Amino acid sequence: MNVFRAILWKDLLTEWRRRERVLSMLVFTLLLVVIFHFALPGGAGPANRAAAPGLLWAATLFASILGLGRSLSPELENDALSGLALVPGDRGYVLLGKATATWLILLAVEGVLAGLFLALFEISIGARAGALLAVLGLGTGGIASIGTLLASLSSRSRFGEVLLPLLLFPLLVPILIAAADATAAILAGDPPSSGSVRLLVVIDVVYLVVSFVSFEYVLEE
Amino acid sequence: MQGPPADPIARAARRALPATGIVLAGLTVVYAWVVWNAPPDRVQGVIQKILYVHPPLAFAAYLGFLITGVAGALYLVRRDDAYDRLASAAAEVGVLFATLMLITGPIWARGTWGRWWSWDLRLTLTLLLWFVYVAYLLLRTFTEGSERIARFAAVYGIAGLAVIPLNYFAVQLSQGSIHPENLERGSLGPGMGLPFLLGVLTTLTAFLFLLALRVDVGELRARARARLERAWARGEAA
Amino acid sequence: MSYVVAAYGITALALVVYGLRLARERRTLRRELAIEMESNGG
Q1: How confident is the model at residue B237 (pLDDT cuts 50, 70, 90)?
Q2: What is the pLDDT of residues B179-200, one digit of tens each?
Q3: How many Cβ atoms sit within 10 Å of the Cβ of residue A162?
Q4: Is B155 in contact with A181 (Cβ distance < 8 A)?
Q5: How crowded is residue A132: how many other Cβ atoms within 10 Å of its Cβ?
Q6: What is the ipTM of this complex?
Q7: Which of A174, A178, A210 comes nearest B159 by C-beta?
Q8: Which chains touch B (3 or more CB pairs under 8 A)?
Q9: Strands in B81-200 per DSSP E
Q10: CB atoms closer than 10 angstroms to residue B31
């Protein structure tokens, strides 16, 4: 548990000092919004309100590749990964710490992105902001856990930056579907369907367990 | 010649090769004859005969992916390279069968619905799973060091197995809101049970035959590599 | 009809080609390994 706190604190502190991941993801998502605007007939505005939830999550998925790809770079640059393998106790807590840091960083970017979407597509959610934040948190939870696990695989392979989206996106499709479904309901003024929320929770639990248990096998050597 | 393979999996694969080969040849002849003579479907016509090969290909592909996940998990527990060779062989053959399933599906859909692709539940699921196992094979090619490949691939293979039910519920969720009608296409009329059964048997036998062959080749590759490494070591020592 | 022929044709062709490639690699590897066995044993 101390390992978890130490890793989380270290990653957040590094990010706070350098802001590399937040800034690169933020600029990237802004670019994506511009690209979406020119790709959509009618542009990124109220005419395409129905597409907003899906696009919000598509942008999140793309941006997460940037954040995840760099999530293990400090360890790789200083060859500290083998040091992490020596931590006492369950190595799953190393993953948990790194994934939680990535989760918070991604959520910060998504918060800005969601605000931008609400303004552009002229959607007012008022009191449902909490529900939207909860769905963002749930959807991002699965991305952060399985994403950190797969980033730890791909970052030590050749063409790692190419490999990561190929490994990750097929596993993120269920999150995209469920999260976009729930987000669409919230933006339309309805409560999200119990099916989508339940699925998001199940995905989070499954991915967290898989990542926690198998990270040990990635780290050893 | 060279001695028998040391590990039981490769030994079983090599022993199974002649028998499955003979059964496969016999089944293929009967299967072709039965499919040729099967009555054309009253609604779909002759195009329906694609359904004697398309779902069986999917069954075989799913069997392959199941073997990949389970063998990968066994590798992580037992650390025996034989399990890793089985996992990679099953993934390769499974991707081949899934690819063929994804090719025959649109051909049937084009002839029946008039369009190449439909985002129907099973087609979409298999497509997503195909991506997972293509990524699995890419991960194997891009990773260095046979022990690391085996470990990384096993981890990803297990994750790939876990995503199947999640994808199932997710795609169902997305269809519940868009087109609720379930496209029932597997229902078999009179005289269609036998060719379908033969299709399943023949395809699964073909799968097992190719899997055994691929496992055997994998074991031979490993031995050839080991020889080469020993030769290198000798050369450096000298 | 041509759709049916295409579906079965592509499937059969792909499986046969894959099987033949494996069989050829298997033959080559077995021969190589056998030769090395002999030279090592002699």
Answers
A1: confident
A2: 334 444 455 666 778 888 998 9
A3: 13
A4: no
A5: 21
A6: 0.88
A7: A210
A8: A, C
A9: none
A10: 25
CB A142 within 8 A of CB A200: yes
Q: Residue A1: helix, strand or coil by DSSP?
A: coil
Read off the pTM.
Answer: 0.89
Q: Give residue C33's Cα distance to chain centre.
A: 17
Beta-bridge mates of residue B46: none
Confidence of residue C40 (pLDDT cuts 50, 70, 90): low
Neighbours of B130 (CB within 10 A): 20
Radius of gyration over every alpha carbon of chain B, rounded to an integer in angstroms: 21
Q: Report, in angstroms and rounded to the nearest whole number, the Rg of chain C calculated over CA atoms.
A: 18
Cα B220 from Cα C26, distance rounded (Å):
7
Residue owning tokens 């590599």: B225
Length of chain A: 221
- Residue B3's pLDDT is 63
Residue with tokens 């035959």: B209
Alpha-carbon dihedral sign for residues A156, A159, A162, A166: negative
For the CA atoms of chain A, what is the radius of gyration?
A: 18
Rounded CA-CA distance A99/A93 in Å is 10
Q: Do chains A and B touch (3 or more CB pairs under 8 A)?
A: yes
